[in-house]
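quick q for whoever's on today - can somebody do inverse folding on this one?? i tried earlier but teh output was garbage lol. tokens:
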């Protein structure tokens, strides 16, 4: 099993990452020794955080460049790395323990994004929008746009492109690559979050107080 190697240490973990949406039962363990606590809107997401959603919980993590990771009910994710290298590159590494997540990644020079799930590693080298679901029997990766590279397991490395769905079986380590993406039960929610964020950004950009470079808090859209 081979994962893409990340630096053993980084110069800084001073990243500006936050919970930009919280609904229902959402909890976060920020690695302070106090265990899980109730998550609230705009709570900072830091290195070694653990986030989980209950049966009615939904959450959205927002990064500095507006990229997002959205968690549906019954999902648990670990933040393995949020670092800035000496050259200024931002490295993000997550672990999806269980559940279903949507990723909207806006690639730019000096950013790296990776997420582990079901014993596999997924990396993005260009702007992408995708859905990942992992469970006891299988994991799936559906690409709405962009391109993802999945490694680990008997299948080696597989590239998934826009409009494709990769299904990985746990028991026999086989995989199936479909040339289509079926609509999932939370796709409408993901699309609605995109619409809400567009409204929020438009309102922020039109505000003389906030200015065009405003980032770091919202009113709960």
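ok took a stab at it. sequence:
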């Amino acid at each position: 099993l081979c994962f893409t190697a990340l630096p053993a240490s980084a110069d800084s973990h001073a990243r500006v990452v936050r919970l930009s949406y919280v609904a229902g039962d959402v909890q976060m363990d920020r690695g302070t020794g106090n265990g899980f606590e109730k998550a609230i809107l705009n709570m900072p997401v830091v290195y070694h955080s653990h986030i989980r959603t209950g049966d009615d919980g939904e959450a959205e993590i927002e990064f500095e460049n507006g990229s997002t990771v959205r968690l549906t009910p019954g999902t648990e994710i670990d933040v393995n790395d949020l670092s800035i290298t000496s050259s200024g590159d931002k490295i993000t590494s997550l672990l999806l323990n269980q559940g279903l997540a949507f990723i909207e990644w806006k690639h730019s020079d000096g950013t790296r994004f990776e997420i582990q799930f079901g014993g596999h590693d997924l990396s993005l080298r260009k702007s992408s929008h995708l859905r990942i679901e992992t469970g006891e029997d299988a994991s799936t990766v559906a690409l709405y746009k962009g391109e993802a590279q999945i490694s680990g397991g008997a299948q080696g490395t597989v590239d998934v492109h826009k409009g494709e769905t990769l299904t990985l079986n746990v028991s026999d380590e086989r995989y199936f690559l479909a040339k289509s993406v079926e609509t999932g039960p939370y796709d409408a929610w993901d699309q609605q979050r995109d619409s809400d964020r567009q409204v929020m950004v438009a309102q922020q950009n039109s505000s003389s107080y906030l200015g065009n470079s405003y980032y770091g808090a919202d009113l709960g859209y």
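fwiw The first helix runs from residue 187 to 205. also The two ends are 40 Å apart (CA to CA). so keep that in mind when u check it
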